[in-house]
Amino acid sequence: MKHFDVSVRGRGAVGKALALSLARLGLRVALSGAPAPEGPDVRTYALGARSVALLQQLRVWEALRAATPSAATRVLDMQVAGDAGGTLAFSAWQQCVGELAWIVDAAALERELATALRFSPHVALLDEAPPAALVALCEGKDSREREALGIEVERHDYGQRAIAARLASDRPHQGIARQWFRAPDVLALLPFDLPGEAGGYGLVWSLPDARAAELLALDDGAFERALNEASHGQAGRLALRGARAAWPLRLARATRWHGPGWVLLGDAAHVVHPLAGQGLNLGLADVDTLCAVIAERQQHEAWRSLGDERLLARYARRRAAPTWAMGRVTDGLLQLFAHESTPVKELRNRGLTLVNHLPVLKRWLTDRALRG
Q1: pTM of the model
Q2: Which of 8, 75, 82, 89 is 20 to 30 A from 21, alpha carbon to alpha carbon?
Q3: What is the CATH number of domain 6-155+249-371?
Q4: How far apart are CA 218 and CA 206, in angstroms?
């Protein structure tokens, strides 16, 4: 049997990116896991600068940008509205950056990562996971391998579902992302270029389970009416382009991220609410950090095994604070806007508007989102 340095379990975006990144370090990598489910993928990802830099290193980003229409759309402005007049706006120009984020076609990203893997001589795509010095678990939030290791997960189910879809608008999106925080839903419209359309958006609509079920049961026309009423026509007249998808929402964090010969990355380690669009950014930052730790080992501690717990503990320490902070921020925002009492509603909307008038704080928030 061929010897592998690292066995990556999980064929999602995080697993594929990790396999490619490790191969760039000259390591022999096995990638295994269930293939992606069949059918259209209507999800869109909001990627920050650190994620884009990683994809550029992997020679994937150029292919996404070269697609017609482009599979990556710039976010130049973000407009956030509360439920009682509060507003918060971010501008790439005011923040002195080229863009606030990129909105990427999830299916196109998976496809380009898969193409890059086929041309990587150091990566073997296998049906069964082989033994290796290091096992990297990137299987997602319901990882069976993590469960088999007996790793406990601190988990809070929100009782909500996120609805995703592709939308066409009768007005150009002009690179503006729009978001509404209300009790009890969070609605996000992410600018996204669609072929043959004046404007397009990726929808991420987080709602209580019962309301989500009602909306998913509607026919396309009734769903579009509900959506246009919820968005107040601010993004133009919106119409569905394809199927709708939905998934349950939770906040989760594994109590251990590493052990002798194994490590957790992405949703297997941490899950946050999608209201800030940071889920995949956190996972790709995990990839970037783990590979940096391994590169340091190759330079200064080549004698140390890839599965050495002290080595893997460095990765876990570096990722602990940013992932914990993002979980707290997203959960805090969700809980804040879940209260329907008038005093709380007035306070949170005033706070939203106050932040809008604090450029230093806005610059810090932008920097955190871009770095992942």
Answers
A1: 0.92
A2: 75
A3: 3.50.50.60
A4: 16
